[in-house]
Amino acid sequence: MHDSSNKISNAELKIMQVIWEAGKEMTYSQIWDAVEHNSKSTTQTLITRLVKKGILKQDKREVYYYTPTVTKHEYSYAKTDELMNRVYAGSAKDLVSALFKENAISQEDFEELKKFWSGGKEK
Q1: Which tens digit of pLDDT belongs to each residue from 14-72?
Q2: C-alpha–C-alpha distance, residues 48 and 12, integer Å
Q3: Which distant-in-sequence residues (6+ apart) come within 8 Å of 71 by Cβ?
């Protein structure tokens, strides 16, 4: 995974979410059409930044096509790991406890987690 994946800004993350959701390479026009409330120049600037960071790969054909080099799962894992280390001193138990205390985990989530933990990490 790229070290720079932790350095995706909130505005850049909106671009990445569009591409991850699409599940395929996209052109600038497709990305711009899918991103709400961005001007064309802002969208182009964000895409350019993501390419420079190595988060997006651009492939020139008749137009540029953009493909993520970081999966949504890799990004989510890196951000969770960063949060756990920065705020909870590396303790997954403390992170999960905080989520329980704040009612951020529903009873259904809790039941799914119990099944996950009792069945191993294959799920």
Answers
A1: 999 999 999 999 999 999 999 977 789 999 999 999 999 999 999 999 999 999 999 99
A2: 10
A3: 20
- The whole domain housing 43 covers 3-68
Q: What are the C-alpha distances in Å from 21 to residues 18, 34, 39, 75, 91?
A: 5, 10, 21, 14, 31
pLDDT band for position 123 (cuts 50, 70, 90): very low
CA distances from 91 to 33, 69, 76, 77, 114 (A): 41, 29, 17, 15, 19
Say if residue 11 is in the same domain as residue 64.
yes
Strand partners, 64: 60
pTM of the model: 0.76
- For the chain, give the mean pLDDT: 88
State how many domains the chain has.
2
Among 67, 92, 98, 89, which Cα is nearest to 77's? 92
The CA distance from 63 to 60, in Å, is 6
